[in-house]
Amino acid sequence: MFHKNWKRYTFLFIVFCLFSQTLWGWGSGHDYVNRGALTIMPDEIKNFLGKENQKKFIRWSHAPDSFAPWVKEQKKYPITDTEVKYLQSFGAKNLYSLHSSRKPGQCANFILLIRAFMDKDPARSAFWMSTLMHTVADDVACNHTSQIHYSTYAFKPYNIKMGNGIGFDFANIAKTSEGKKAVKLLLNKYSPKVITGTPNVVLEQILSTDILAATYGTQREYKIMATYAPSATKKTRNTGTEAMAELGVYGMTKTMDMIITAWEFAKQGKVPVLTSEIVKNATKTKHKYLGQAPLSDDSIYTGLLQKAKNGVPNVGIVLERSQLMMRSRLSFGGRLVMAAVMRTLKANKIPYCTIDLRDLDIPDSTTLDVKKIPLLILCSGSFHVSNNAKNNLKKYFADGGRLLWIGGRDKGILGDLSQSLTKADPTILPVTKKYGRNNNEVINKISIKFLPPFNKLLGDKQYRFINNPDTKAGSQPPLCLLKVKPVNSQVKPIAELSVDNKTICVAAELTDKKGNAKAIFIPEYLLAPFLLDDTGDSMVNIADITLDRVGTPILLQAVSLLLADKK
Prior knowledge:
By secondary structure, the protein is an alpha/beta fold. About 40% of the residues lie in helices and about 10% in strands. The protein has two domains: about 30-290, P1 Nuclease, CATH 1.10.575; about 295-565, Class I glutamine amidotransferase (GATase) domain (Rossmann fold).
């Protein structure tokens, strides 16, 4: 029987039902992951499954991507009524709930696998092995990292012309001679092992699988993206292929250790029970890990992280460390936007330094020195930051620091400019909260006009959205639901959005009494690449992306205004 007090612990798992996005990890790559896993599976387990169930282990590799109700799944797969009731006790409505973003999906999967082994049921065992392999492999799928995610769900649908990269799915390299060789070399180094004989420790480790796998992915993201550079060499492609192979093999080996552990637990009659204490310990471990992991683990920032230069004014760039797909304190897609901002500043020889958002969580942080860093750029997104971070930003602004706020939300940081920000009518905005809207009808009507002094570089023409920022899938859309309604003459409109006969101000500058710019608010959708700029047949280096021909003058004009002082 399952733990009689299980429901007491479900309050800790609200995230189980938070997300409804149909964002897949590996596509056909799951088939190759499961095939590879069979080659390292101990003979004892393979013999238990038999040849037919070994085939099903591969064929069932996509089962967790289904949202079908349980009654339909039971007609397709060997899932018992008892197993359904157990999963429902976690709030699981479908097989998709097994994914790691819906904890404790993998723990429940692991426990069901132990019970299938104990019942000596090869078909059920093959099924729960296959679903576990899928979700762990998804944790490390590279299209869940910011840059590859953006490229998958935005740039590819935009038909951006890019270099001939190796692909964004494990299957893309698993069927090539180079990829097969890389995978084989990695698997030859693998030694199957029991994770630990202590059940609660195993569950704690499973609960931490997602965050460790996410880091493993972000560390390799740039190597894969570099293969898309028009000038990518054979060596670059081989390095990218090896990185992709490492991701696929990570899913195989980490899951195989779980499977072997479940097999041994079944032999010993050990069935773990997930308790609130186990969850609490795992959560502490994950928070500690996230607090210490360096920004350099996010390879999207490769070649961009740098300290403040002495003797010159530095533009401060606030960056956040990756957590999991779809989870960010600021903007998930904003990581790519900020990488593009840094490359654009570097190309224009404007000194900048990078600032870890976590450093702003320290009470009375000395990180924001106005003398060294007179201007700060931040892509705020949902702006889920600590009170310490908000207080440090407010103090910086009060001490004379200037802010280029790429919104997102602001939570009162920008003084009178914040007082001027209010909710806009969502029906006329280019991005909405509704997932997968792809609102072409509205997008085709929107025009953007830049006002003085931004029209000096951008002209007086009406800009149109060449591509739809509200993509059908993906977590990267540049959401900003605000408009500007100036509360006084020191809040000056700099960009207007028009739809039919409706016109709203969406970007503005806050000046002091002398006319010096103190803060500028610009919605993320005005800076995100390839929305207002038609690249035509131009080849784009998405590996080392910069702002486009509209975003670049917006950034340069804003930085020029915010660094200038009128006597």
